[in-house]
Design a protein that fits this description.
Layout lengths: L1 E7 L5 E5 L4 H9 L8 E4 L5 H13 L2 E5 L2 E5 L7 E2 L1 H4 L9 H8 L1 E5 L12 H9 L3 E5 L2 E5 L8 E3 L5 H11 L5 E5 L5 H12 L3 E3 L5 E5 L7 E4 L4 H13 L3 E5 L3 H4 L4 H6 L2 E5 L3 E6 L6 E3 L11 H9 L4 E5 L9 H7 L3 E5 L2 E5 L8 E3 L3 H13 L4 E4 L11 H6 L4 E6 L4 H10 L1
Parallel strand pairs: 2-15, 3-14, 6-7, 10-11, 18-19, 22-23
Antiparallel strand pairs: 1-23, 1-24, 3-5, 4-5, 7-9, 8-9, 11-13, 12-13, 15-17, 16-17, 19-21, 20-21
The structure holds uridine-diphosphate-2(N-acetylglucosaminyl) butyric acid.
Length: 433
């Protein structure tokens, strides 16, 4: 089991961090390769476990994936399978993104139902309803979605009950090759959706309105290959900004367009006392005095749920009372008991977490429950007195490229190691040492 150990918290982090390409942009962009028999060249691809899982899935479907550093070439000359099996879908829910493109290109798809995950039920009813509106016949049986459109998909009017990021992406990728016009009302406006639309348009698609709540897609007969640079990861940017603040350090975050990607986050950070200044290469982040905040997670351009655990870690050591409300996922507070084991004072009241800042957190063995919660615990450990050992960090490598290396380069006393021991055995061993 891979673990992360922060030998000594409280060291102010100083240095530069290169921000990677966005995981949640890279995954749908890779899937877009299913829509054409010509190569798609992606630049700025992050080296992540989820990117590897997506490469494996696409490989099974017939896509050749060639990687060299952060460049990736995907070619789907022939689709040789239209089935995404449970084994891969259970590892990564974004696998459901192949449903729309497979239907559009091959007229059929069989994709395992993803099921719930640690952060919530995570339904895909809106993806299914949207594809039905485009004329797909859909059966749910034996844990699989079987979808058919033998005569091709037809444009239609879709109105989502709630904005769904991968739902919008799935429908967009199905509708680009459908006959006629599709409208998506209450579409997700996230930058990753906009990046996908930009890439699809460069392949010959006709998508308008991306980044607003109404997207219009005029179907075309065929798409061609393209070259596309994946946008930088706004969640990784926010996470390392919090790392600078929680350790009272100063980090330059390097990447193109990071300022614009902080929309929805920058205001909250400013209220919290985090200073963000534009530099030639990105953003300089530091903090002196921190302030409590009331923050609610919302769809873009609201504060992202994927930074909720991290801002909570910061509030744990910020004098005063903060309130964090989680509006997207019903079960995304699993990091709370772990933070409390480190001395945090957090009370949960339904969707709200009331956090009373403490002077110091204490290092402890803790358990990561999901990707973003893992980094919330790393941040807490970076600020805490003593040693923190974080178990189950396989979650973290799904979405943060070389996190330990990037933190070490800024002076953190952190390491990764393989261990078969539980966090409790680790603690026992330390207390006898
Ligand atoms: N929803 C439905 N029905 C659906 C789809 C969604 O009711 O068919 C609801 C969900 O239950 C949730 C809300 O709509 O309450 C938003 O869910 P959304 O579909 O937008 O989430 P997602 O597309 O599955 C993406 C990111 C998540 C991120 C959410 C919200 C990717 C691959 N994943 O998930 O990222 O939390 O949007 O911003 O883009 C992460 O990176 O750690 C992560 C979990």
């Amino acid at each position: 089991m891979l673990k992360i150990k922060i030998n000594k918290g409280g060291i102010p982090l100083k240095g530069k961090i290169n921000i990677s390409g966005a995981k949640n942009a890279a995954l749908p962009l890779m899937v877009a390769s299913l829509l054409t028999d010509e190569p798609i060249a992606l630049d700025n691809a992050p080296a992540l476990a989820d990117v590897r899982t997506m490469s494996n899935l696409l490989g099974i479907l017939g896509v050749s994936v060639d990687c060299s550093g952060s460049s990736m070439k995907l070619t789907a000359k022939d689709i040789c399978s239209t089935t995404a099996a449970y084994d891969l879908v259970k590892k990564m829910r974004a696998s459901v993104l192949v449903l729309g493109p497979l239907l559009a290109r091959a007229g059929q798809a069989k994709v395992s139902l993803p099921g719930g995950c640690a952060i919530g039920v995570r339904p895909i009813n809106l993806h299914i309803r949207g594809l039905q509106t485009l004329g797909a016949e859909i059966d749910l049986q034996d844990g699989y979605i079987t979808a058919k459109a033998p005569n091709g998909l037809k444009g239609g009017a879709i109105n989502f009950d709630v904005p769904t990021v991968t739902g919008t992406e799935n429908i967009m990728m199905a509708a680009v090759l459908a006959k006629g016009i599709t409208t998506i009302v209450n579409a997700a406006c996230e930058p990753e959706v906009v990046d996908l639309a930009k890439c699809l348009n460069s392949m010959g698609a006709r998508i308008h309105g991306q980044g607003t709540q109404k997207i219009t897609i005029e179907g075309v007969d065929k798409l061609h290959g393209t070259k596309h640079k994946i946008i930088y990861d706004r969640i990784e940017t926010g996470t390392y900004a919090i790392a600078a603040a929680i350790t009272r350090g100063e980090i330059e975050l390097i990447g193109e367009g990071l300022g614009a990607l902080m929309l929805g986050t920058a205001d909250v950070f400013e209220q919290a006392g985090i200073s963000i200044k534009k530099t030639e290469l990105g953003l300089m982040v530091s903090a002196d005095k921190l302030y409590p905040v009331s923050v609610s997670t919302e769809p873009f351009p609201g504060f992202p749920t994927d930074l909720q655990a991290q801002i909570m870690a910061l509030m744990c050591v910020t004098k005063g009372t903060s309130v964090v409300t989680e509006n997207i996922w019903e079960n995304r507070f699993l990091h709370v008991p772990e933070l409390c084991r480190m001395g945090a004072d957090i009370t949960l009241k339904g969707t709200k977490a009331v956090i009373k800042g403490v002077r110091k957190l204490q290092g402890a063995p803790v358990m990561a429950t999901d990707l973003r919660a893992s980094f919330g615990l790393v941040l807490a450990g970076l600020a805490a007195d003593g040693t923190t050992v974080i178990d189950r960090t396989y979650h973290l490598v799904r979405g943060y490229e070389n996190a330990v290396g990037k933190l070490q380069a800024c002076g953190a006393d952190i390491e990764e190691f393989l261990s078969n021991k539980s966090p409790y055995e680790e603690k026992l061993q330390r207390s006898f040492a």
